UniProtKB/TrEMBL annotation:
Keywords: Dioxygenase, Iron, Metal-binding, Oxidoreductase. Binds 1 Fe cation per subunit. One of its GO terms (molecular function) is dioxygenase activity. Pfam families: Pirin (PF02678), Pirin_C_2 (PF17954). It comes from the Bacteria. InterPro entries: Pirin, Pirin_N_dom, Quercetinase_C, RmlC-like_jellyroll, RmlC_Cupin_sf. The keyword Disulfide bond does not apply. Its cofactor is Fe cation. This is Putative quercetin 2,3-dioxygenase. Fe cation binds at H58, H60, H102, E104. Belongs to the pirin family. Signal peptide: none annotated.
Length: 242
């Protein structure tokens, strides 16, 4: 079970007057040719946006963009006429497809918003842009891994992504709670907050990530209340599974 641990402190950071963004992979001005993706996942940004601020209207193309809010609320608007307020427990996906413009702003004038945004490639380019959001009950998120987004045939997911080899799972684990990770050619485990013990690896804390190749599904146990996001991937960029 090859596993590469990426600690929180080792992430590149973009800081502006209104944004603190920590990047798991190369992003923007932070380019590392040895850290461009894992499996099908190209972006895993851990963002905090100050009140009454956010990303002005900007373009995207040929990308499946999934946003998961940890605290606060984020307002989404796009050129296809979609508008949504994303809050904790609401799964949201924007398919940029043939091209779309969108903005993301903190919905609060007094409180910051903290969210993770993840990008995976679609199976096909130039598909029609689309938007989807769906609320996931807290009872499901605290009961174990729940599938937030998936394109894998047969998966029951809150929202879909246009990639038949990728799925995002998440959980909010109480102290002592344990879950088994799925077996897959590629897994990307990200800990937005908390402290956990991963079988065969050891302690993970908020901001840490683990990249697995050919994993057989180790167990993860929370040492304190924690939240996890896990990408299960059965292919990699430019090819199939190993």
């Amino acid at each position: 079970m090859p596993a590469e641990i990426r600690r929180a402190a080792d992430r590149a950071v973009t800081t502006t007057s209104w944004l603190t963004s920590r990047h798991s992979f190369s992003f923007g001005d932070h380019y590392d040719p040895d850290n461009t993706h894992h499996g099908l996942l190209l972006v895993n940004n851990d963002d905090i946006v100050k009140p009454a601020a956010g990303f002005a209207t900007h373009p995207h193309r040929d990308m499946e963009i999934v946003t998961w809010v940890l605290s606060g609320a984020l307002t989404h608007r796009d050129s296809a006429g979609n508008r949504g307020i994303i809050y904790p427990g609401l799964a949201q996906r924007m398919s940029a497809g043939s091209g779309i413009l969108h903005s993301e702003k903190n919905d609060s004038a007094t409180e910051p918003v903290h969210f993770v945004q993840m990008w995976v490639v679609p199976d096909e380019t130039a598909i029609p842009p689309s938007y989807q959001q769906h609320h996931i009950d807290d009872e499901l998120l605290t009961a174990g891994l729940v599938t937030i987004a998936s394109g894998i045939p047969g998966h029951d997911a809150a929202i879909t992504v246009h990639n038949r080899a990728a799925a995002l799972h998440g959980a909010r684990l109480s102290r002592g709670a344990s879950v088994g990770l799925p077996a897959a050619p590629y897994l990307h485990l990200f800990v937005p907050r908390g402290r956990l013990t991963l079988e065969g690896v050891g302690e993970l804390c908020g901001g840490d990530a683990v990249r697995f190749t050919d994993t057989d599904g180790p167990r993860l146990t929370a040492d304190e209340p924690s939240e996890v996001l896990l990408w299960e991937m059965h292919a990699q960029l430019g090819g199939s599974a190993p």
